[in-house]
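Cast an eye over this sequence plus tokens and walk me through the fold:

***
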Amino acid sequence: MFHELAQTCRLSPDRLAIYPSASIRDAWEGLDEDWKNGTLELGKSYLDYIYPQLSAKDYLDYFYTGNRVRFEEKYFARRRALDALVLAECVADTGEFLNDIINGIFCICEESGWQLPPHNTYIRDTPPLPLPDSGDPVLDLFACETGSILATVSYLLGDKLDGFSPLIQERIRRELEARVFRPYLERHFWWMGNGKDPLNNWTIWCTQNVLLCAFLADIDDTLRRRILVKACQSVDYYLMDFGEDGCCVEGAAYYRCSGLCLFNVLEILNGVTGNHFLSLYQEPKIQNIASYIMNVHIQDKYYANFADCSPVAGRCGVREFLFACRTGNKNMAALAAKDFAAGISETMLLSQENNLYYRLQNAFSIKDILSAAAEANSGPVSYPDIYYPSAGLFIARDDVYFLAVKAGCNGESHGHNDTGSFIVYKNGSPLLIDVGVESYTKKTFSPQRYEIWTMQSAYHNLPTVCGCMQKDGNAYGAADVQTCFSGSCCEIQMDIAPAYPPESNLLYYIRKAVLVKGEGIRFHDSFCLQDNLPGSPSDSHVVLSFMTYERPVLEPQQDALLFHIGDKGSLHISGGSFLRTETIPITDQRLSVAWEHEIYRILIWALDDEIDIRIS
């Protein structure tokens, strides 16, 4: 698809000029006044900024402790400071920010490696090396992104930098040549793809940023064409790992560095070839990839989350809006515009964004997206009920309830052992939840990954059977998945027994979930163990977990268990006996973004081989 078009495209003679450089004053002076004022204020807060030192000791900290946050805080602070200063100078055009900009450029150019410590390896899934080799750069997500930041700086402020000293842009070109272009063309990193091995968001995220480096920096067309052709081949490999349904198996948060990077790749390619790739926006798979983020949106800040995804995946913004416009999805454009406006304090400046090009894109789209938001407020966004067979993701909703169920398998990228788990929201508030993932450490992507509690099936809305949790890997997943969307009734049924190891003694475990619109949600579990005849009691071999955000309070009932989940809703369980409720404090920084207080786990013994659950 992409690679074929790359063979016949003609490059525009100039650099990528979708957005104007700082020298085109009319364009910058016509930007949104609130954005300009906020950008100047943010930029001034970085005047005389002392860029955090990054030493070998900082790099080794991850190697010895597994903590990646301490290094990343310094690393990304440098880039966000430079971004803020550059945009402020583009607005002010006074030169007052230049000294701090030049200081930031040289600080970043003098880093021994642009890759993060956990990514400091040349071969996929091998332990990272303790220190970077400046003579043999690794191209990871953030090395590519760092290159794109410097290329964007060069594009925006090239005239001013040259007026100060030609050595600045020469330094940027030299670093891009050594750290991006040469390794990109001469080495094969796994994320580039080969048509056989599985890929993930790395492929399109890295490719986007390499293209930005190539078409924003001042390099010759021969080099640009070589990069474009290789990039298009990688995009085709990336798309091979998507089902036709366009589901992002890594979740809503990863859509921002997956589907939206695909969008920017298309924008860049069209921008430098006179819209040679424009027809691809009408491809069904690309349209489905675009609309995924709308389909998994619940309400306000919440998204359906499975795997390493938080339910608070970030506000939609201009990239979602522009992708929706390009693909003709009016509902998604309305959602993106309304969400942008609802989170304006977060979305206006993107002050926590590392990618300077995204912030530039934001600046020149704000007027359009705010205008669309004003129009969109006149009516609701229409969401579909949907099943994504490529990932086994089922979503149904009505005016009160949102239900998402995960079938699929336990071998997906960034996956958890969560086959058959579900989440339920009522009136936009979390009722039964997927916890998400803690801050990444060395253990997160190691053979010990599934020792982490958030990855385990026992901390999802799932049963533990004969003391066994689910296992990880493609071999462990749902079987006999059936879905039905018929008028007011949406349902999914599957056998989750294959997600458990043989020692669980499961012959089958059928889980059925039904949303009847206007009435509520019901679940029915039935199972059989090898040492029990069908229909005979299973004693205490099966313990069900239910994860809740609000404190559950048990109200005694004659024939069932009734839990009030805070004041948000109720959980009715027939066929089970109450074991205990656990309180789980939220102390991790990443989890605390979604969960502002402790969460809870209800444990229920299965009394026989069937259990009914009703949400009200």
